[in-house]
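Entry 14. Two folds queued back to back today. First construct below, sequence then structure tokens.
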Amino acid sequence: MQRRKWIDSKKGSAVRSYVVAFLAVAVCASLQYAVLHLLQADLPPALPLTVLLAPVIISAMYGGAMPALFAAVLALAAGAFLFLQPILNFWIAYRQDRVMVLAFAFISLLIAFMGALLERAREKAAAAKLALQQSDQTVRALLQSASAAVVGFGPDGKISIANDAVFNVFGYRSRELIGQPVDMVLPDVMRKPAMPTDKDVSQESRAMQTGKCRETPGKKKNGDPFPAELTLGSTDTPNGPLTIAYIADIGKRKANEAQALHAAKHDSLTGLPNRALMLELAAQLLGAARRGNARAAVLMIDVDRFKSVNERY
């Protein structure tokens, strides 16, 4: 869709370029005609066609080679009709007029050539800009589609990009984080650099320190801390290196893990340590005693009729 609009705008720009060329030649020719014939001003013989180079230059800068050639043909026609002596008779014109026309044509061709180069450079710049816009839209779409919170920050620690998922993790809207220090949501990221940013560090060394998943403390908008899972990536941009952080709130997962671990080592009815935990603690105690060349004792307490109560309830 954007490419179609770009092509349509290019066609409209070409038509405008020819209109500008025609108007520029008409204005310059009219002004010179008024100066020469109406005001009876005495101008150098080469000045009329020399001044008509202005529309050619304007057309080359505005539209490129073809509008410049169009302006050059119009200017030659206007010069032959209005300024050359005898009028409309190039072959019997004065020698200086022939030289002037040939010089004008040669210079116009050079200007048209420069206009072609300028037009090509503009087309390349427009194509590069379009590709950059499409790439930017693709990156933004990927960021917004990510389920994890994504923030990007530079060496100064200021957040430059953030997706909408940061609201689910931190409670901030994405626009609230732009320009803020990353320490506001990830206090330990800048204290413990996850990757070197010096130019002397090789890309292999930087790549070894990115892409690793680790746990780090996070901070919500209301100030509550929470455990976060952090994965970092690094990329180079025209504005310098950019660190991309992918953050997930693992508070519920860690709570479930702790609950499962507690259930595996404690009695579900009384909440007291079960045999598995007792054996684990006993092994730790015996190991510590061996290392310290000390003695260890285990006290067993029997509760009467506890088995029947436990089985009943």
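Second construct, same run, same settings:
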Amino acid sequence: KMFQHEFSQAIMTCIVENVFEDGEWAILEWKDPLGLRGCGFFQIVDDKIVFQRGYWDKLSFMKQHNLPQDELSEALRSIESTLSKCEKALTKLREGTSQHTLTARRIEAFRIAVTLIKEKLEAIGDA
């Protein structure tokens, strides 16, 4: 479902750069108008593609089409909300109990996640 939504938001065009053939195998090198490059490998038997595999720089693709920012921003909101709830719950838990220790560790993990996601969002914004 995520891919269906995200790919429907992106404008994609494939410009063929090279096609190589060798027996049952073909390789397609392509680029898009923004300069993203990739390649596809195809095995063709009886005029049908029986195997296909493609490679491209996913991060560059997602940056060019503004896809990761939305996902990362939503993840950040969700984690910050959960972090806030954990911090409130921690005040009600008795120190030294397993619940207190577990919640305190979760809070620390969520804080690290928030920091990393914010750094990533800043890096994407600078690109």
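Quick look at the second one. The beta strands are 15-22, 25-31, 37-45, 48-56. DSSP finds four helices and four strands in the chain.
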